[in-house]
# Entry
Amino acid sequence: MNSIETTSDLLKPTTRLKRRYRVERWFKRLGLTAIALSLSFVAFLFFTIFSDGYTAFKQSYIELEVHFAAEEFSQEKLANADYPGLVKHAMRTMFPEVTSREGKKFLYSLISPAAAYTLQNMVEADPKMIGTTQKVWVLADDDVDMLMKGKIDRSLGEGNRRVRDIQLAWIDRLESENRLETRFNKTFFTTGDSREPELAGILGAVKGSFFTLLITLSLSFPIGVAAAVYLEEFAPENKWTDLIEININNLAAVPSIIFGLLGLAIFINFWGLPRSTPMVGGLVLTLMTLPTIIIAGRASLKSVPPSIREAALGVGASKMQTVTHHVLPLAMPGMLTGTIIGMAQALGETAPLLMIGMVAFIVDVPGGITDPSAVLPVQIYLWADSPERGFTEKTAAAIMILLTFLIAMNSLAVFLRKKFEIKW
Amino acid sequence: MKVTSIFVAGALTLALTAPAMAARDYISIVGSSTVYPFATVVAEQFGKTSGSKTPKIESTGSGGGFKLFCSGVGVNFPDITNSSRAIKASEMKTCADNGVTEIVEVKIGYDGIVLANSKTVEALKLTRQDIFLALAKEVPDPANPEKLIANPYKTWKDVNSALADTKIEVLGPPPTSGTRDAFVELAMETGADTFPVIEGMKKTDKEGYKRVSQTVREDGAYIEAGENDNLIVQKLQANPTAVGIFGFSFLDQNADVLHGSIIEGEEPNFEGIAKGAYPVSRPLFFYVKKAHVDVIPGIKGYLAEFTSEKAWGEEGYLADKGMIPMPKEERQLFSKNVASLKVMDMK
# Structure
């Protein structure tokens, strides 16, 4: 009888046990709160970027009836014709009641300066157009665009907004005549940078990032893998290899701006490579990603069990054959993951590029590695610093595109790891 | 091993062939971040209408621009540098030492520096003396005007009893910025000169004068907001008692939410700055390397575009972007200098 009682006493939770349970519950709750807090920050970030940026994928267009008068094209070169004049003429015919000088200025400012380029391209593509009247959809000015997207408050007094009352009336009339509409913003994906928000595009920066990463990948992957294989499989263990290993680990922690300074001193000032080009950018980012790739490569080589090597050597394979036929293929998924993560890091990097002149205004879309170009994060930085309101949404849209690339690259890394991971 | 040797060979070829491919068919421009928004518009217009390549423009700051510009003659060095101040004698010397002896100076217009706050509260009416008292690190002791003390003022009312009783909270550019240099020189120094004790130091203690008249307080009343002026605009909207310092073009673009402080009776608007009535304004320049004009294609066209009436004139597109045009005679003078490529006197 007595013994049973003692057992139930033992099972009954004591105060100390209760306290230990309580502490554990609290610890779990704290952990959960930490996760919830960080998730809510991420959600907030994504929400603000998305709500600022989704409008950038739409753009306002105005329909004009342009008369390509033959006398305007009397000059020899088509490029010399007065295209802005054609746009102005079309606006005047549409609103014949506007006669005052100031009124005309407000009227013309509804249309983007890019409209003249559109007309020029049309005529150059098809000179037979001269002498005819054509209906053309041209880009609206960024102020009109902001108004259409509800980013300018109509209820404010006239002095407090960038669009005048008279312009509002014109805009409403254009809208009721179906001559003003918002469409998918193709321009954003097909042009380079511009100082007019409605004309600014991301293609220049995307191509610049692509060329830069191409250089980085084609240099850092072979060097990184070769260095990792040598250090892990062939190098003798002595003071020198220890020193090299310590230095590689240190390099991985060096702030990226230092690599920019190094690139400026060696690639530009000493080798004389052209500033602001993906070639120099790629070389600098190679220096930056190499340590990451070497460290990841060595770790994945280490994880290949020694029995594989011993078995290969045991049946008479040479050291070289062992490595290339057996060890390297097994270590490759880990190395690829490391490389992709290194590339993703390089894609988001601005600091070293600042030193080598890639933070620049470049309109022409780069065609190769020696053309000056910007990269995605630099484009974001430049747009965030521009005074025009229209660039706010472009900035957010560019961030969305950069994040898409980053998430895609990281998911690829996760996918490769999951698919080829081998459990020993 | 094979991979490595291929790579080493590749790197060597790259190193050897690099200088050969350095010929450049686009204009390279560096310099001031204040001139950047204007120069980029001209560059884009030039690129789109002339058929030449669009010039590449880096925003390095005025000082950084001269450093690059003056490092030598040749395709590896920029052709043009923008500046929000005139070239210094020391920079001219660096230029001359590196063989850059022929420089064409072009003044392009003016820029106003504004102190702005949210439209939800009243605009401030300030004098430059108020600005100095509110922002300097050391000010004359009100009890004993001969002595300098650490800035004791906490509210605008402390500075000048006519002002509102709100905390002094100014968001402005960091010391690396040209806007900060110009602001300190145009607003604070002139404000400091109104006190005989500081004015007197000009002759007796030049170093001390510079320190007193140009040092901004570091006790939290002046907040360095980084080079991003859009950030300042957003912060001002969120905090109506704060005042921000930035270039006129940002006020112009955000006129629906901000208004500029009236300085010595002058509102910061287009006409006031163009006439020179608004006290805190400065000229903007760019400098061209004459030796490059016939070597790099397009420089002449770019210069012609920049100095045309449709760009820098009173009705020009640069005025639409917030640059304040020069008077007509000055425009004529500089466009004549540009057409004849009149070089500066290097002393």
Notes: DSSP finds 17 helices and 13 strands in chain B. Residues 95 and 101 of chain B are 7 Å apart (CA to CA).
